[in-house]
Design a protein that fits this description.
Length: about 90
């Protein structure tokens, strides 16, 4: 699925898209800070009902997946199962 303003393509089934262009990049010995300017932001209407998300998205906050603030799963367990690595 092509982007509207930048080169990299969009992920078709994402909840939404944010496209940005690089403004500045600062690097240090053990970090990189990337600053971008948003040039396009849209939500995927296929996940909406009357202009709002039909279901709350699952977010990874800290070491747990959450739905509207409640823990839904431990990301460390996902790493063990799907990536076959220890956290």
């Amino acid at each position: 699925m092509p982007a509207r303003k930048v080169g990299p393509p969009r992920i078709k089934d994402a909840l939404g898209w944010i496209e940005a262009v690089l403004e500045k990049e600062l690097t240090g010995d053990d970090y990189a800070l990337v600053i971008g300017k948003v040039v396009c932001a849209e939500q995927n209407d296929s996940y909406c009902d009357d202009g709002a998300l039909a279901e709350p998205p699952m977010l990874m906050l800290g070491s747990h997946y959450r739905l509207t603030g409640e823990s839904a799963g431990d990301v460390r367990e996902t790493m063990k199962l799907f990536l076959n690595v220890a956290p």
